[in-house]
Amino acid sequence: MSLRICVFTEPHRGADYEDQRRFAQLVEAGGFEGFFRADHYQTMGADPGLPGPTDAWLTLGALARETSRIRLGTLVTSATFRLPGPLAVMVAQVDRMSGGRVELGLGAGWYEREHTSYGIPFPPAPERFDRLEEQLQVITGLWRTPVGESFSHHGDHYRLVDAPALPRPVQVPGPPIIVGGRGPKRTPELAARYADEFNMPFKSVAETARAYRRVAEACDRTGRADAGRPPLVLSAGVVAAIGRTETQVRRRAAPLHAKSALPPEDVVVGSPAQLVQRLGEFAAIGASRIHLRLIDFDDLDHLELIAGEVLPQL
Q1: Which DSSP symbol is given to 148?
Q2: How far apart are CA 106 and CA 194, in angstroms?
Q3: Within a 10 A sphere around the Cβ of 81, how many other Cβ atoms?
Q4: Over the Cα atoms of the chain, what is R_g?
Q5: Which regions of the chain does DSSP assign to beta strands (E)?
Q6: pLDDT per residue over 226-279, tens digit each?
Q7: Which residue among 88, 186, 283, 299 is buried most deeply as judged by most CB within 10 Å?
Q8: 3-class DSSP state for residue 131?
Q9: Are the C-beta atoms of 260 and 250 separated by less than 8 Å?
Q10: CA nearest 64: which of 44, 93, 33?
Q11: What is the DSSP string of 3-20?
Q12: Phi, psi (5° rounding) for residue 168?
């Protein structure tokens, strides 16, 4: 089995910058491929998530200077939060700060409550997906514009005129873009047209396999291979609560039962061997990368257990 394993975190549940710095540095020391974080401004349950949210790209810029090897990115940045031109500048700058280790997960946005709380417009779903597609067009267009030339875009939601398309990211033609989700129609099309990676978050192996088939069909329809673009990386999000003892497993699984706005998730609860088995099942359906979601920033032993007893088997 050959899988690349990243750690995915949710700082909006309650983590300050120092928590994330410590965790990311341990992710790097443990041999994981990357540290990814959610881009949310509010928790999804009753817990307030003290001390409060941290901005994803501000945090990743700081972590770019505190790490040296791991990939850094979002799963996923909401297209409702930032205009595409400034977002392209932010991500390119963090890519330069990291020496070319950044990835951009971009989605349409879904959690209405955090938009209402912070005064962020939340249009209906069709418009959000239209905006997402335009953002993908703008961001990839800016990154691909040669130095000395300008970029313009005239769309239904965004208009850019003679943008200098600077700064240039280190990675060429730009940081990898991740598009993912459970949507059966527009999501596969957007991934096929614009993304480098398709991610299916936190669902069963069978549901993930069906999503991969939909994306493969979309790649055929859009002529991705004919255009000379490389195949999509297929990845899966996996929620894990792993322990050496039943007591550890129960303690780590307890937060997963809290009431939340998130849809139902397929969770691996048990021993390191059970996690290895599940990861092997994802590899068998075509996944080459796993984003492993860990809940507790203070539970460094959980991270070390997976680094010591799971990663060597992959």
Answers
A1: T
A2: 11
A3: 18
A4: 19
A5: 4-9, 34-37, 71-74, 77-78, 102-107, 151-154, 159-163, 177-180, 197-201, 233-242, 267-270, 289-293
A6: 999 999 999 999 999 999 999 999 999 998 877 666 667 899 999 999 999 999
A7: 88
A8: helix
A9: no
A10: 93
A11: -EEEEEE-GGGT--HHHH
A12: -80, 135
Let me know: does 283 contact 9? Beta carbons within 8 Å.
no
- Using the 8-state DSSP alphabet, how is residue 249 labeled? H
Q: What is the mean pLDDT of the chain?
A: 96
Cβ atoms of residues 222 and 266 within 8 Å? no
205-222 helix and 272-284 helix, angle to the nearest 10 degrees: 30
The whole-angstrom separation of Cα 210 and Cα 301 is: 34
Q: Per-residue DSSP letters for 151-219?
A: EEEE-SS-EEEEE---SPPSSSS-S-EEEE-S-SSHHHHHHHHH-SEEEEES--HHHHHHHHHHHHHHH
Question: What's the length of the chain?
Answer: 314
**Predicted local confidence at residue 263, as pLDDT:** 67
Q: How far is CA 192 from CA 35, 232, 244, 260, in A?
A: 24, 7, 41, 31
Return the structure tokens found at 98.
């990291």
List pLDDT tens digits, range 147-177.
999 999 999 999 999 999 999 999 999 999 9
The SS3 call for residue 59 is helix
Coarse DSSP helix, strand, coil percentages of the chain, rounded to the nearest 5 percent: 45, 20, 40
The owner of tokens 């817990």 is 47
What local confidence, expressed as pLDDT, does residue 262 receive?
Answer: 63
Residue 313 is given by DSSP the state G
DSSP bridge partners of 177: 104
Written as six digits, the tokens of 189 are: 């099309």
Q: What are phi and psi of 198, to 5 degrees?
A: -110, 130
